[in-house]
């Protein structure tokens, strides 16, 4: 793989892996704050980031060895409202700045699997930002997120609060979605 794309994919792998852990931590905070459904959203989104990290890791399958990985990653444990805001900003950074730049490079270098992995991630992160916004509005009104089941697409990391026919991003059958 061309080095700029492999460097970018490793950085994205680092960012997704850290986001996963961070969301599990913020989910625990949400539960402590009394927002059980927000915890479920954080946990579902954590698993979505694992999907993205896995796509990137597999795209790098021919690149064995040890690397120093530098990634943009948020830190801090604050109120659930503030954690949701930070989570949303992270998703927006990834979907509007980081991935579009990385995809442009990967397309130029004709790295098809890398492009596919990062396009799935970009589209899913945009949706994650919207879901976190919905959760933040509820929490700021003093309420828990008003959802029954949260569904995760195991192929691309798309998250929805309602039953759908198939994944609008990757076409995965809804029957394969994971419930939270
Ligand atoms: Fe995300
Ligand atoms: Fe999907």
Could you explain how this protein is built, in words?
The chain is mostly helical and 180 residues long. The chain has a single domain, classed as Up-down Bundle (Ferritin), CATH 1.20.1260. Helix content is 62%, strand content 3%. The chain has 4 helices and 3 strands. The protein has a 3-stranded antiparallel β-sheet with strand order 2-1-3. The longest helix is centred in the N-terminal third of the chain and has 30 residues, at 3-32. It is globular. The mean pLDDT is 98. Bound molecules: fe (ii) ion (FE2) (2 copies). It holds the Pfam family Rubrerythrin. It comes from Peptoniphilus ovalis. Residues 1-143 form the Ferritin-like diiron domain. Residues 148-180 form the Rubredoxin-like domain. This is Rubrerythrin-2.
Please give the number of β-strands.
3
Structural class: mainly alpha
The ordered string of helix (H) and strand (E) elements is HHHHEEE
CATH superfamily: Ferritin, core subunit, four-helix bundle
Mean pLDDT: 98
Radius of gyration over alpha carbons? 16 Å
Largest sheet: 3 strands, antiparallel
Assigned CATH class: Mainly Alpha
Bound molecules: fe (ii) ion
Give the low-confidence spans: none
InterPro entries: Ferritin-like_diiron, Rbr2/Nigerythrin, Rr_diiron-bd_dom, Rubredoxin-like_dom
Organism: Peptoniphilus ovalis
Protein name: Rubrerythrin-2
Pfam families: Rubrerythrin (PF02915)
């Amino acid at each position: 793989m061309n080095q700029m794309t492999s460097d970018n994919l490793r950085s994205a792998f680092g960012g997704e892996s850290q986001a996963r852990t961070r969301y599990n931590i913020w989910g625990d905070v949400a539960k402590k704050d009394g927002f059980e459904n927000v915890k479920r959203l954080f946990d579902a989104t954590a698993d979505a980031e694992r999907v993205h990290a896995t796509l990137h890791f597999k795209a790098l399958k021919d690149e064995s060895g040890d690397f120093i990985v530098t990634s943009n990653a948020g830190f801090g444990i604050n109120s659930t409202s503030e954690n949701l805001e930070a989570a949303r900003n992270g998703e927006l950074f990834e979907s509007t700045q980081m991935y579009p730049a990385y995809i442009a490079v990967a397309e130029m270098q004709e790295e098809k699997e890398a492009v596919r992995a990062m396009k799935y991630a970009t589209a899913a992160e945009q949706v994650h930002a919207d879901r976190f916004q919905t959760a933040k509005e509820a929490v700021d009104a003093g309420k828990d997120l008003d959802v029954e089941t949260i569904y995760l697409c195991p192929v691309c990391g798309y998250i929805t609060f309602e039953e759908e026919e198939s994944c609008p991003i990757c076409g995965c059958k809804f029957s394969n979605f994971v419930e939270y």
